[in-house]
Design brief:
alpha/beta; 3-stranded parallel β-sheet; 4 helices
């Protein structure tokens, strides 16, 4: 068995959180020290995924925070991979700063 990853994360809409999503997050979070979840903004959901979320961003983020194994949750307002990487890094640093 290899060493645990320091950080892992997932990003999604999380409007309707199925059992399989919960299971995936629980399993991934067990294999790392810190697990974050990015939740797409309403604007991204509408403009990029052509659907309207049933719940607003705050509600979706609150629901994700309740999942076992999630250390921090953050909004994502881009689909650009490089921008997402920066957001994940910033949010992880913020999370670690709040723990001290």
């Amino acid at each position: 068995m290899g060493e645990k990853r320091k950080l892992n994360f997932s990003i999604g809409i999380f409007d309707d959180i199925s059992d399989s999503i919960i299971e995936k997050i629980k399993n991934e979070s067990k294999n790392c020290e810190i697990y974050g979840v990015g939740v797409y903004s309403d604007k991204i959901v509408i403009e990029e995924y052509f659907t309207y979320p049933m719940k607003n961003l705050e509600e979706r983020m609150d629901n994700v925070k309740q999942i076992e194994g999630v250390d921090f949750v953050f909004p994502v307002d881009t689909i650009d991979i490089e921008e997402m990487k920066k957001i994940v890094q910033q949010e992880c640093v913020k999370f670690l700063g709040n723990k001290m």
